[in-house]
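Session log. Operator J.P. requested a structure for one protein chain; no other inputs attached. Running the standard single-chain path with token output.
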Amino acid sequence: MSEVAYKHVPTSNSDLANVQSYLTSIKQNFQELQSQWDEVKSLAATALPHIQILKHEDIVVPRQALQELAAEADQVKMLLPRVANSNLISAKAKLNKLESDLEKTNKEINDLRTEVVHWKTQAETAVTDVQREKKGQLELRVDVQELTNQLSQQSEFCSSLGAACCTLLWRVSRQEETIQDIVSGTRSVEFLELVSTSVQSYLSAYKDDHWPDQRTDEAIFIISLCGIATNIAASAFGREHLATTSHGRHLVDTFITFVRDAPLDKSANMKVLMLMTLFNVSINQKGVKYLQSKPGLVAVLGWHLKEEHHHECQANTLRLLLSLVADEASGLRLMHELKENLSTSVLQQLTTSSQADVRDLALDLLMDIRRFDCEQ
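Structure written below.
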């Protein structure tokens, strides 16, 4: 727009012409401005719907920064599918694994449920069987109790009968003719086996338990059997039989075991007879050799002489020891073994015993030991 100057208007014709020229120029300029303004308004009317006028809270961003931001956006657009696809594949793999684990777990649960049903059925069957077995066991217990009572009665009867019969046989066996009949009879082997088995069973039953009273039928039965064996060994024919036959030697071994394992004092009545049987067997030449061949016999007899206080047991033990060491062939070896297991102080103490037979036998054995020492 042209600048307009305000001047003093002349009154002459030339001045009016100048004023008219100025007005024409102003009008022309105004028309141009009006035309430009119309053009601006037209452009504004076209552009305003697409242009958002900045407000005071808006920020002007430089074109370069906007270009950098656009470049980064393009890069993100390019990388985003790769990252998204990688995460998607990983998530899909995990999902597949979880689905597989879930399917496996469901299968295991179903298997466990089937197994639970199976075992529940088995348990119910077992409970039924147990109840049936309990009922059967109860019935069996009643039957066993009845049989036990019957067996006890029969055992008592048999013990009483055996004690009576063996007591009578013990008395009868004192006769030489009776001994020959017993040993040479068809039942001699069975009888000696009966003696061995009965003594072994009695020792096994009561060795670690309460030793029964010696007046019971069972004890009398065993004592009678031992007495019969003693009478057999008292006979020359009988001790020859015991020393030379297998069942006779088995009886000798059984008696040695009983002397070693039976409780002291309580079993004295039985051991008196057994030691006498062993002594009678030692009188036989074959019998003494068999006894001398038994390892540890002298040690057992030495221990028994020290620990057993029953005077008849002591006397029979001394007799057996004297018989064993008297043999020249094996006497020296057994004398060494005797000195290792029996001190002379024990024998000296026995020489002061109130029982004459114990005192004399201990003195004889002590003299044999001293004689042996002098000879060495």
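Operator note: Residues 1-11 have pLDDT under 50 and may be disordered.
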